[in-house]
Design brief:
Layout: E1 2-7, E2 12-17, E3 30-35, E4 38-42, H1 47-58, E5 68-70, H2 76-79, H3 82-88, E6 92-96, H4 97-100, E7 119-122, E8 127-131, E9 134-140, E10 150-154, E11 159-161, H5 181-185, H6 189-195, H7 199-210, E12 216-218, E13 225-226, H8 227-239, H9 259-263
Parallel strand pairs: 4-5, 5-6, 6-7, 11-12
Antiparallel strand pairs: 1-2, 2-3, 3-4, 8-9, 9-10, 10-11, 12-13
The chain binds fe (ii) ion (2 copies).
One fe (ii) ion binds near residues 73 and 145.
Length: about 260
């Protein structure tokens, strides 16, 4: 089922799909942006989501004519359905230059030619991707969590698609905005402490986001942060988060006890 996150009544619509992962896969959100005759998919996922996502978006746009398939980073829940999007659409694929060179590992040899000239390898500084008479802005989000990582800002809806930043593990109603921030922190804390690299990256990212006009922060897992109060609470929390290498100590780098030694 899709949720409409934004519709300006003039041809610009943002959809979230949040219940396509069946079985043991971690819940994840996929996004479709439509601007007039143009369409872009953000973080379409892997083999678990390809078929249901294709079916869902075929009711909303001509899938073959997608402008972009956009990947915030290289993870399995982000872009491992790449081979199928290359084969069954004319979309260009957008990803960090650090990961573009690894994409051929996802594409079987017999369709390798499909990727020729269709990969947009983003420089570390990001880029503005033309999108009809608008654009999609690729914002640097490196080390949050991948080494080559981007978030995507839609200046029409003022939605920031924040990949794994702001991700939460919630049981249901993944499109429902966060209401009680303090309770919600419990659903984000452990994930961010382990998957984000350092507080330095968090603070630099928050400074960048505060320079933009952001109405919603929409992560790739769990619920969105909607409105100035919730966006502000999230930025406050994230800029002081100790995570990744901030929390490392010598105990992280000890060889595990060997079985024979442990029983001696
Ligand atoms: Fe990830
Ligand atoms: Fe993820």
């Amino acid at each position: 089922m899709s949720s409409v996150f934004y519709d300006n009544g003039a041809g610009h619509t943002v959809y979230q799909f949040s219940d396509l992962v069946a079985g043991d896969g971690i819940q994840s959100n996929q996004f479709l942006l439509i601007h007039g005759d143009h369409a872009a998919l953000i973080d379409p996922g892997g083999q678990l989501t390809y078929q249901p996502l294709y079916a869902a978006i075929s009711r909303l746009t001509i899938v073959r004519h997608l402008d972009y398939v956009i990947a915030s980073h290289q993870d399995p829940d982000i872009i491992t359905s790449l081979d199928k999007w290359l084969l069954y659409t004319d979309a260009r694929v957008v990803i960090s230059r650090l990961w573009a060179r690894f994409l051929p590992h996802l594409v079987p040899g017999y369709i390798a030619g499909e990727s020729d000239g269709r990969i947009i390898a983003l420089p570390d500084s990001g880029a503005c991707l033309p999108f009809g008479d608008s654009e999609i802005i690729a914002l640097p989000a490196h080390f949050l969590h991948s080494v080559g990582n981007f978030h995507f800002y839609d200046p029409v809806s003022r939605i920031l698609f924040s990949g794994d930043v702001g991700a939460s593990l919630t049981d249901e109603e993944h499109a429902r905005p966060v209401r009680d921030f303090d309770r919600h922190v419990k659903k984000m804390q452990a994930f961010h402490e382990r998957y984000m690299v350092s507080n330095r990256a968090c603070r630099l990212w928050v400074d960048m986001v505060r320079s933009l006009d952001v109405d919603m922060i929409v992560p790739q897992h769990g619920r969105p942060f909607v409105g100035p109060q919730m966006v502000g609470r999230f930025l406050q929390w994230f800029e002081q988060l100790q995570c990744g290498i901030d929390l490392l100590g010598p105990n992280y780098y000890r060889p595990p006890r060997r079985q024979a030694a442990a029983s001696a």
